[in-house]
Design a protein that fits this description.
By secondary structure, the protein is mainly beta. The chain folds into five domains: 136 residues, Immunoglobulins (Immunoglobulin-like), CATH 2.60.40.10; 123 residues, Immunoglobulins (Immunoglobulin-like, Sandwich); 115 residues, Immunoglobulins (Immunoglobulin-like, Sandwich); 158 residues, Immunoglobulins (Immunoglobulin-like); 95 residues, Sandwich (Immunoglobulin-like). Helix content is 5%, strand content 37%. Strands 1, 4, 5, 10 and 11 form a five-stranded mixed sheet that branches. The chain starts with a helix and ends with a strand.
Length: 683
């Protein structure tokens, strides 16, 4: 047993091997047969039990069968003892489900696999689980016949749980790209370009599996053996669409196996996003979702007659993940509402999202939770949250704001322009100026060489615009996301923006006013909804990866202007700027008369308050002060002071008009002093 399992381990990744050499035995003697199975054709994701069963007692007479041991990846092995000369009919089972009837080319059995046992211990060639139905050959692989000069690598990815970016399994494409780590496989058949497209799988023909196979994409990459070496490491990643933009966050790896045999790579969740099992919640809650679509109407992303729906329970926050309900319009208003019964958990949070449904496709709203306190880079930050405070409550997403958590939903308009439109893109760079000067922050480059440390560099370095709004199938240029580098800022005919006052050229009105401008001509081949991002000196230094601007172009005229604000995609970081009022915040601190002897934080007044209150504090000496407001979940909702202040008595106002009623906490940190107090907002 140990000998043959060792052989099987060495064969991991091999599609076919010769019968193992062994000492010859006399007729009727016991013969050990090692079965090797590859399950890359199985539509189930959790392979808990894999067995081989057949018409011999050693195979339990087509009963439960003999369990196979997982060798790694898609490969399984098991050893069974027969008598030499036995004719064996057998099949494989996965999680209790039978494989489809294969076509036995040897003619041992019309609807099973067949084996004539010889007189020597034998390791059979690797067999693939047959899930394709009658007429499929017994030894069928998921790819066709290839010459000996080709090594086949079978890739497989499950798209079921991918939620970081929009994905529609009925219309989107999935591909794989990769190359040799630290080098190149020139003409090997693999590389970082072009895409090798995968095919969406179909459900098992025999219907014995409970898992939906149509969430899987798979396909073969053909590598020329003359260009690769045993032990070579390849890096690769899966992507959605025809070009970079919705690829996985990190590279994966595989190693060229011994003798360059064909191999399969065990399936993975796209971007490592696996479904979250539903928690054992037992609280039945009646939830009313109400939203105001005024902003979506005004920006052209929604129209009367469109369907708006809410999906809830994401990330295990309710028993049912992605529960869907359509909202109904309230009379002739812009308010839409639906009441639903959800099994969730009291005193916990509920994750949900609004979707626009057109042509049978659900389009997720453009939303980012700026108050999210979970892991950096988590896709949960793109979902809305609400605390389940009682068994009957109403969620109001009606605030007119660009930063509030309860703001109205917005959608990208996917329809095409009716005619040519010249669009003037204007970005107000003052948030960057104030954040670097008064927030003492560095605008770090996550791509490209240049981080901004000095505000004087903005004028010298210049500003550029990047993204699908400037290129790709929806923009005026052939490439959507250009490589972030200084070349973008030097692209004077396209992506560079201008603050030169030359209205007749690039559209800028006043030189030196910190408003940078560029113009593009869009045609009827372009859609109205456009995604973009700004960068100083062509580097990606506005905000984190994945945070982008969205604006809808209006074709009511032949010209249209979009007035964007630098950093509005991350207002918590750019806390020296009020994006709703479009003006600087600075410290907002009032210096009072009197001498302070000790550090102190006073109770706010009035308290309770609606919608504003004043907070006073004392500093016995010049100090770096942070004064922040938190909700009862401990989530930061406002930064009132982040500055170095002189000694003395100080006061600051807190405006909570965009927050919900409830208990809040405010905390001051100054030197080694720290204090927390409560306040109540009643609306």
């Amino acid at each position: 047993m140990t000998k043959h399992l060792l052989v099987a381990l060495l064969l991991l990744g091999i599609v076919a091997v010769p019968v193992a050499n062994a000492q010859l035995k006399k007729p009727d003697a016991s013969v050990k047969v090692t079965f090797l199975l590859n399950t890359s054709t199985v539509p189930d994701t959790a392979l808990n039990t894999v067995t081989v069963t057949g018409d011999k007692a050693a195979l339990t007479n087509f009963g439960n069968g003999i369990s196979l041991t997982k060798l790694g990846g898609d490969y399984w092995a098991g050893q069974v003892t027969f008598n030499s000369g036995d004719t064996v009919r057998y099949k494989f089972r996965v999680n209790g489900a039978w494989e489809a009837n294969p076509l036995d080319p040897a003619g041992f059995s019309p609807d099973n696999r067949g084996l004539l046992v010889g007189n020597a211990d034998t390791t059979l060639p690797v067999q693939f689980f047959n899930s394709k139905g009658n007429g499929t050959p017994q030894w069928a692989k998921p790819w066709g016949t290839t010459p000996d000069s080709i090594m086949v690598v079978w890739f497989r990815v499950n798209m079921q749980a991918f939620a970081s970016k929009p994905f529609n399994k009925n219309t989107d494409t999935v591909a794989v790209r990769g190359d040799k780590s630290g080098g190149t496989w020139a003409d090997s058949g693999f590389g970082w370009s072009p895409s090798r497209y995968l095919a969406r799988e179909a459900a098992a023909a025999n219907g014995g599996f409970t898992y939906d196979a149509t969430n899987f994409w798979s396909g073969a990459v053909m590598l020329h053996k003359s260009h690769i070496a045993v032990g070579d490491t390849s890096e690769y990643k899966f992507l959605i669409g025809f070009d970079w933009g919705k690829e996985e966050a990190n590279n994966r790896k595989f190693i060229v196996p011994t003798a360059k045999h064909d191999t399969t790579i065990y399936w993975v969740w796209y971007n490592n996003e696996a479904p979250i099992p539903p928690p054992p919640y037992k609280d039945t809650c009646v939830v009313t979702f109400r939203t105001n679509m005024t902003t979506a109407f005004a920006k052209g992303g929604f129209a009367v007659g469109d369907t708006i729906q809410v999906q809830s329970g994401f990330f295990g926050t309710a028993v049912e993940n992605g529960r869907t309900k359509n909202l109904a319009r309230l009379g002739l208003t812009a308010l839409y509402q639906v009441t639903d019964t959800i099994i969730a958990k009291l005193d916990s949070t509920l994750d949900y999202q609004y979707y626009l449904v057109k042509g049978g496709n659900a389009q997720r709203e453009n939303y980012f939770n700026f108050q999210f306190t979970g892991p950096s880079g988590s896709s949960e930050a793109e979902r809305r949250k609400f605390k389940v405070s009682s068994k009957a409550f109403t969620v109001l997403d009606t605030v007119t704001s660009v930063v509030a958590g309860r703001r109205q939903p917005e959608f990208a308009n996917q329809t095409k322009l009716a005619h040519n439109v010249r669009v003037k893109w204007v970005v107000d760079m003052r948030p960057a100026y104030y954040q670097v000067k008064y927030g003492h922050n560095i605008l770090a480059a996550i791509q490209g060489p240049d981080s901004l440390k000095n505000i004087d560099s903005i004028k010298v370095w210049g500003v550029a615009i990047n993204g699908p709004a400037t290129g790709g199938p929806n923009g005026p240029l052939p490439v959507d996301w250009a490589t972030w580098d200084r070349g973008i800022a030097q692209d004077t005919s396209h992506r560079r923006m201008w603050d030169d006052g030359f209205a007749g050229g690039h559209g800028d009105q006043v030189a030196g006013d910190s408003l940078f401008t560029v113009q593009f001509l869009y045609t009827s081949a372009n859609i109205k909804g456009q995604v973009f991002k700004f960068g100083i000196r062509g580097s990606d230094n506005e905000s984190a990866f994945g945070l982008n601007h969205l604006e809808n172009i209006s074709d009511a005229d032949t010209q249209f202007t979009i007035n964007a604000q630098w950093g509005s995609i991350n207002p918590n970081f750019y806390n020296k700027w009020d994006y709703n009022l479009r003006k600087p915040v600075l410290t907002g601190v009032e210096e009072l008369t009197g001498i302070a002897q000790v550090y102190a934080l006073a109770q706010n007044y009035p308290n309770p308050f609606n919608p504003s209150t004043k907070i006073e504090f004392s500093l016995p000496k010049q100090s770096a002060v942070d004064l922040k407001v938190f909700n009862i979940l401990g989530q930061e909702v406002a930064t009132l002071v982040h500055a170095t202040l002189n000694a003395g008595q100080h006061a600051v106002s807190f405006d909570a008009r965009n927050l919900a009623s409830g208990l809040y906490f405010y905390r001051i940190s100054a030197g080694e002093f720290s204090s927390v107090k409560k306040m109540m907002l009643l609306k």
